[in-house]
Amino acid sequence: MKENYISKKLKINGIVQGVGFRPFVYNLANKFRLKGEVANTSSGVSIHIEGAKENIESFCSNLLKNHPPLAHLSEISFNEKPVEYFKNFSIVNSRSGNLRSTLISPDVSVCDDCLSELFDPDDRRYQYPFINCTNCGPRYTIINDIPYDRPNTSMKDFKMCAKCKAEYDDPSSRRFHAQPNACADCGPHVSLKNNIGKNIQSNNPIEKTASLLRKGYIIAIKGIGGFHLAADATNNDAVVRLRKRKHREEKPFAVMSYGLKQIREYAFIESEEEKLLNSIQKPVVLLRKKEANLLSREVSPNNRYFGVMLAYTPLHYLILDFGFTALIMTSGNISEEPMAIDNEDAFNRLGNIADYFLIHNRDIYLRSDDSIIRRTAGKTRFIRRSRGYVPVPVFLKSSVPQILACGAELKNTVCLTKEKTAFISQHIGDLENLATDSFFRLIIDHSKRILDINPEIIACDLHPDYLSTRYAEEQHGVKLIQVQHHHAHIASCMAENKLDSTVIGLSFDGNGYGTDGCIWGGEILIVEPARFRRAASLSYVSMPGSAAAIKEPWRMAVSYLYHAFGEEFWNLDLPLLKEIEEKNIKIIVEMISKKINSPLTSSLGRLFDGIAAIIGIRNNVSFEGQAAMELEMLADSNSDDIYNYEWLPDDTYKVLTQPIVCGVVKDMKAGIHSSRISSKFHMTIVKLFSELCEVIRKENGLNRIVLSGGVFQNSILLRGLIKALEEKRFEVYTHSKVPTNDGGISLGQAVVAAAIAKR
Ligand code: ZN
Ligand code: ZN
Ligand code: FE
Known about the structure:
Oligomer: single chain
CATH class of the largest domain: Alpha Beta
Number of strands: 28
Distance between the termini: 57 Å
Radius of gyration: 28 Å
CATH superfamily of the largest domain: ATPase, nucleotide binding domain
Mean pLDDT: 95
Number of helices: 23
Largest sheet: 10 strands, mixed
Bound molecules: zinc ion, fe (iii) ion
Structural class: alpha/beta
Strand content: 15-25%
CATH architecture of the largest domain: 2-Layer Sandwich
Helix content: 25-40%
């Protein structure tokens, strides 16, 4: 053989199984006339190749550049080997045994190849709503165990026909080892039912569904990660009816369109947003509304944005192809319960909401809500990280023990770690009802099994009454580590930015249980992963009625006003003093002065709520953070005015709320427009905290600042603080891989627990 005939072994770790990686390698090796073999291993794939040196080089560079869309290569090693003179290139059958630790692909949208077959009358899968291939379709939500083979998925009940089987066995086919492979002859089917499960006769249930939607009916549609409730977003009556039946007063509904052309009829799309909309994950992206548009005002009232996604399953495409501008596609649930995933449950729980049900007979094992993203300050920000992204791990800077972190109370996710990977679960929900609690337990058991993780440490919040804390305490034979909520927020952002040295952490948040039993949320912390110290916070005010003060921001307004003006506040000329009955305000004042059910809080989220109520935006909210969100939406952008501010030195700096509240009230008296007040308030928080950070930098010699907490979903604040801090030459770190809200807490708990265990 020639001198430049060489042999190499490649080991690739990452998401490389069940995503068409081996056939890709097979075809690539043949293209470059290489011999050898490719096989699955416990941590990924190993490739043995022999051939001309330059061909091997071309093979390697193609491997990195052109791998299948679902593959995620996390680690690659190359080793020279003695030449063995293979006769050909082959795909070696899985050496069974220890294949349990490979990464699983998320569910992704139908690919372009499948889509063109779907609409090709000559294709054998023409209009087949479950068309898929190795590059697309469901994965995570249909897997019950590993390895990822058909018998371990909800496709186990469907026996492939001869044609499908031939594709499945052919390494040159796009459907080689595509576990959900199916066709109309052998695979799942849709059927249309009324709301008590009776069949609706029609030649084409999808066409019938479209015509019912057109008439204004609400249809429950079974998708990839669960049921959606669908309605024509341009039909105001339908949207109003859906709100009433779902008990969802004002929280925005997500909408779905066929393509960018339809979206442009009602929203603006920036180029980075276009990439996100088109990505294989197909998240809901928050897009700025066009002033005049055809969608019902009730889709997202009092909001400058629409939550928009493109169709992502073949079924969505087939429905939207009937010419809708946009369909509401909101989670199929009642208020905050988990979304329905199986047919019977859907009829039981959604029977009073949906008029008809478009169901199918492919089971969903694990629910996964749509992911929600907003572009702010040049980066992608997760509001919810779920379908399409889970279970892709966050890769950590260093190896950690096997840990289960139970997450926060609201927007709960859990996190499991192993070596350098942290798997954050899909959105579980608010752990306030039994249904969510059982989903929480199911996800933990399921994830431990499919990720093959057996935690030796369990991490949870500090709050003694959380369901997740109780769950953690019930577990035996594991070490329990409790982590303060805002410590976890900052640690979460540190982990995704691979920081492990001490930082200044700004945790701006709604609620978190503090080490002193008070409710924190406007904190500057000095954080090293294993511990933290409170350097500054908002000064405490009462939260009259505790949780009731979150639902009724006017209570917080009274608290801040009473705190700033004492009994004098009764003489102020403010809308809320006219709108709320005097006797109710008196009760609140009494609760505050007599300290009845009025925990103390330093929450910045509550200050936003309180200011919103003081300036008359709203007194009550129908979802968490609504008042603060509307305050943000109101702000006019071109103003650098600020209110006076002040902090007191103490063992920690105490930022006073009185000067800000007094400034706002004074502007109200002067008849300044609320949009001006809102923007002054935002700028005050930016100026105040960036200056305070300079003081803390001087004292501690720290230049890295980490921003985390739910209040940073406010893009004026996030953009403003990044800019102000960078102008002061701080190194600023923010979230772009996990949510800044409580959905990111589980990751933080896990890395704090790992750091504590290491000490
Ligand atoms: Zn495909
Ligand atoms: Zn078939
Ligand atoms: Fe939080």
